[in-house]
């Protein structure tokens, strides 16, 4: 969530409201009138002298960023794929907390179980007195049901069997991958809906990258496509080389033939066969090129439009990473900028426990946000932040 220029105005409005309400309710040092609408009327006035001026510090105005409601991943972050390493599915299915080598997952069922944000997770408020730690309090507050408040952004095409696996992991920190398999003929695969749909534009170029290895049935050619919101029209498509028995990175370029704000990304192959996927990513090609020009190993993470808007604010400082994001539910979920260094495929992911929001994140913006001095900000960091951020990102 990014906050900006309305802060002082809101504070002023709030002060005026407090003065007015206080007078109306008889706040004159003797307590609240039990019935302010009866008897005599109450009047109050506030005079604001707009001609009176005072020096204002140049560092008073700034911005505040916290990863709430996908302000980062799904907002400022330019990645279009949500849950590219399948960590969210691993958590919501229980695979992440188990010792099982593999787990078949019904993606449609997991998506249907997603918790309604408008429905309380528990009606029992007595936990406020029973809890001894924040983690204990939040666990009880969320109730005994499955932790299905994590968004499931992946769905299988008809005829596709999906399974999470720990067999032959991509690397020591990225231990979970997704196996797609089919026993019958026909096009099968998996769909990513992004963050409530992917916004793609006609005339723009997008770079897809993914890690893949052949399944038990041997190599199969892969096709990656961008489909429109109706799932009936192919906006762009590229064929990738069949993956080998070992992990390999496959890339391609997609250029949509139409603009669509609800597009999806589809990885497909012709059955029967199987393939194992991990770290599926889709970035604007301009972000990939900018990273190459900067000598960085990962795509430049910021959306050009939102980064430009922040630059236009000319903030004197930036407050980051926020409040509840720092400590998370448990120490293991606390903010640690060091986990956001290195190639994306080597990052283990992070559960944003916060206070009541629960986001499965891939840790991408943390280090780059520490480098926001490029916007001209002086920096105001809450948490375990270094005095100077490394340029290796």
Automatic annotation (TrEMBL):
Signal peptide (residue range): 1-26
InterPro entries assigned to the protein according to its UniProt record, in alphabetical order: ASD1_cat, CenC_carb-bd, Galactose-bd-like_sf, GH, Glycosyl_Hydrolase_51
Domain (CBM-cenC) ranges: 198-266
Keywords: Hydrolase, Signal
Gene3D superfamilies: Galactose-binding domain-like (2.60.120.260), Glycosidases (3.20.20.80)
Alphabetized GO MF terms: alpha-L-arabinofuranosidase activity
Domain spans labelled Alpha-L-arabinofuranosidase 1 catalytic: 310-357
Domain of life: Eukaryota
Protein name: Uncharacterized protein
Natural source organism: Auxenochlorella protothecoides (Green microalga)
């Amino acid at each position: 969530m990014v906050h900006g220029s309305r802060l002082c105005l809101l504070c002023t409005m709030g002060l005026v409201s407090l003065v007015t309400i206080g007078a109306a309710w008889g706040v004159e040092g003797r307590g609240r009138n039990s019935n302010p609408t009866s008897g005599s009327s109450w009047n109050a006035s506030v005079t604001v002298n707009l001609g009176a001026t005072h020096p204002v510090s140049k560092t008073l105005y700034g911005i505040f960023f916290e990863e709430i409601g996908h302000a980062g991943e799904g907002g400022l972050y330019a990645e279009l794929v949500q849950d590219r390493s399948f960590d969210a599915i691993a958590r919501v299915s229980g695979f992440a907390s188990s010792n099982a080598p593999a787990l078949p997952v019904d993606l449609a069922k997991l998506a249907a179980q997603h918790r309604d944000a408008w429905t309380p997770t528990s009606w029992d408020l007595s936990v406020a007195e029973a809890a001894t730690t924040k983690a204990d309090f939040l666990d009880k507050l969320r109730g005994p049901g499955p932790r299905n408040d994590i968004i499931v952004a992946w769905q299988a095409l008809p005829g596709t069997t999906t399974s999470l696996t720990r067999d032959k992991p991509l690397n020591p920190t990225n231990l979970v991958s997704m196996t797609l398999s089919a026993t019958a003929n026909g096009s099968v695969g998996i769909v990513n809906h992004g963050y409530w749909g992917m916004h793609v534009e006609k005339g723009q170029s997008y770079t897809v990258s993914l890690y893949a290895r052949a399944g038990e049935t041997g190599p199969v050619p892969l096709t990656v496509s961008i489909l429109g919101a109706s799932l009936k029209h192919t906006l762009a498509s590229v064929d990738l080389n069949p993956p080998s028995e070992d992990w390999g990175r496959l890339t391609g370029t997609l250029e949509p033939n139409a603009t669509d704000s609800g597009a999806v990304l589809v990885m497909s192959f012709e059955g029967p066969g199987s393939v194992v996927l991990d770290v599926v990513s889709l970035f604007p090609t301009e972000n990939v090129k900018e990273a190459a020009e900067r000598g960085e190993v990962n795509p430049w993470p910021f959306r050009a439009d939102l980064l430009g808007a922040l630059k236009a604010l000319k903030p004197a400082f930036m407050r980051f990473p926020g409040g509840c994001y720092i400590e998370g539910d448990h120490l293991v979920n606390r903010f640690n900028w060091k986990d956001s260094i290195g190639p994306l495929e080597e990052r283990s992911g992070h559960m944003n426990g916060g206070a009541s929001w629960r986001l499965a994140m891939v840790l991408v913006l943390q280090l780059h946000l520490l480098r926001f001095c490029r916007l001209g900000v002086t920096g105001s960091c809450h948490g375990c932040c270094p005095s100077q951020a490394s340029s290796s990102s």
